[in-house]
Amino acid sequence: MPNAYSRAMKAHESNNEGIRLQKILAQAGFGSRRKCEEMITEGRVEVDGELVTELGTRVDMSRQQVRVDGSRVRINPNHVTLALNKPRRVLSAMDDPKGRYTLADIVGDKYERIFHMGRLDYDSEGLILMTNDGELSQHVMHPKYEVEKTYIATVEGKLSGTVCRRLVKTGVQLDDGWIKLDHCAIIDQKRDATIVKVVLHSGKNRIVRRIFGSIGFPVKRLVRTQIGPIKLGELKSGSYRVLSQTEVRSLSKAVGL
Q1: Is the whole model's pTM more than 0.70, yes or no?
Q2: GO molecular-function annotation terms (predicted)?
């Protein structure tokens, strides 16, 4: 006797409701329609917790949940996620009573209810992610799902490899506790400055500046180049781009969605 799920799926198909599963996967950035069909027949796709291998299956994304290899597929045509390259002296906010330049001045009013996920301090530059997807925003900013963030920092003085290794292995004690870097590598050195690549999970305020300042190497310039799987790439300062469905899917997976 067919279970409730089977009866529900047959009802959807007979009424021609929903969208074919392979089309949903293709729209979500899983590849061509043919590749998505192969994923279904290989038994990698679930609908409402049930394995689906029939290519004719139709799904109503407003009422049903699709997962591929255990990761949830999320599609909403009204959702948009942006990567923005924040210049120096731009406030990580959508408005400012003091009249300073903000993220809203870069993005404009094209997107409704869009907001930044995390911040960069006023004098720092680089990647900021923005979205009107509340669930994605909550996960990206929640401490439980802290994703790796990569920075290129220019610090005063000659930083040694020994100090870099100590920041990763031991860390430093700040006013709000101990903190370690996930990765620290010297990229270049000049007579009075060192350029270093830094990777860490913490999203605490001004954390990179505080770490290096605490050991006597004040940060002269700080650029965030990556958040989780999303890279700044060749995006020009003061501009933004819309993330592809593939990028949104990889970001969602990184934060447990």
Answers
A1: yes
A2: RNA binding; rRNA pseudouridine synthase activity
